[in-house]
Amino acid sequence: MPETLTPSGVLEKREPLVLFAFFQPVAGLDRFQPAGFPEVGHVIYKAPRSNGAVENVCIVDSAASMANHLEALCMRGAHDYELVDDLQGMPYLRCVTGKLEDGKLPPEKREVVVTSLTEGHRIASTYFFGNRPKKTLKWDGKGAQRLKDDGTLCDKSFGDELAEPDNFGIKLDGEKKAHPPADKWWNVFKTIFRYDPNSLVHGVLFPQWQIKIPRVLTAHLEAFGASRVDRSGVKFDRLRKTTSGQPIFAVDDATAREIRATFILDTALVRSFGRKNGDNTLGLGDEQKKFLVALALWKIEQLCKTPYRFRSGCHLKCAKLSDDKGQEVTIDVDIKSAVNQAGFQQPSVTDIYWPWDELKRKGEGDEDQEQKPDEEGETNGAEDEEENE
Q1: Burial of 135 (0-12, 13-18, 19+ CB in 10 A)
Q2: pLDDT of 177-231, one tens digit each?
Q3: C-alpha–C-alpha distance, residues 233 and 300, integer Å
Q4: What's this model's pTM, rounded to 2 decimal places?
Q5: Calpha distance 220→208 (Å, rounded)
Q6: Which residue in 198, 203, 208 sits closest to 379, CA to CA?
Q7: Extents of the domains making up the chain
Q8: What are residue 245's phi and psi, to 5 degrees?
Q9: Model pLDDT for residues 56-105, shown as the tens digit of each residue
């Protein structure tokens, strides 16, 4: 009999939870298209095995790409930025624009640009945090203000709101050495959970404030016993309206003995987000921590429940879900109940306003604000960018 995983059971007993999902192409196909880069293609490396043998392993999707896929499951569609029904009431941020009317922007006039579920930096994105030139590291005053309940704008950026004593409690704001005091980290966890709990699940980085929270849920997709399949494509310019002519281009596919997704849920990290101190709770409470685990399990369940298109040539279905001991498992999570019991404040959606002209303008020092990657070429959960297909 498969083992049933519940949020409370995982949070109490598993450290960490490791799951394997075994995928296969739909329609009985042999080939699939891994993630890759222009002029490089996808990555196949030789992994050591017992008795000195090696096996070709293909990286189908990295941890960054898998985070993007798991977050996409929260939205109604690729171009629909509303949450799915199951997650209604879960907080997240929206960057909105529109024409102010008497200093207000009513809900029906708001045009959604991006959300914290579609932006790589999540809650730490400039779209929500505000533009801060390198010379001053202070908000430039030209956008990123939270819209109040009555539709008026706050007089400071949302980033400056986060820095306030009741939130992150940042000292020396505007200087490179700014960071939250040790006793304010509980507020950091609570504030991020209040506005965008998804950022705690997939990791977030505020480099200017020395706030770096790694991923609770890490996933990657690999193919074992992989072989490269080289094929070509051609672009036809029948109307001859471009200068490209009729180019022939290379396309890399792959075949494999096994396609396997690995999910690692760091329950110890979740527990570190809060604890009891006598009659008081520091950081997140039990129901809030349970929600983070429930959200992670729900994402895994949704990815494995029906065939999922990772990219145009990579439409896969899950054949089996098991733990790291080979025991087949099922996931039992009532995400609607978890949302209700997490105690989220209302309204759950926070709108951050930018004038349209400022969204189109390149900010001063944009190049300097890019977050520097770690030794693996990623920002450790702070920016999850999809590789080119």
Answers
A1: exposed
A2: 788 989 999 999 999 999 999 999 999 999 889 999 999 999 999 999 999 998 8
A3: 34
A4: 0.90
A5: 29
A6: 203
A7: 3-360
A8: 70, -130
A9: 999 999 999 999 999 999 999 988 999 999 999 999 999 999 999 999 99
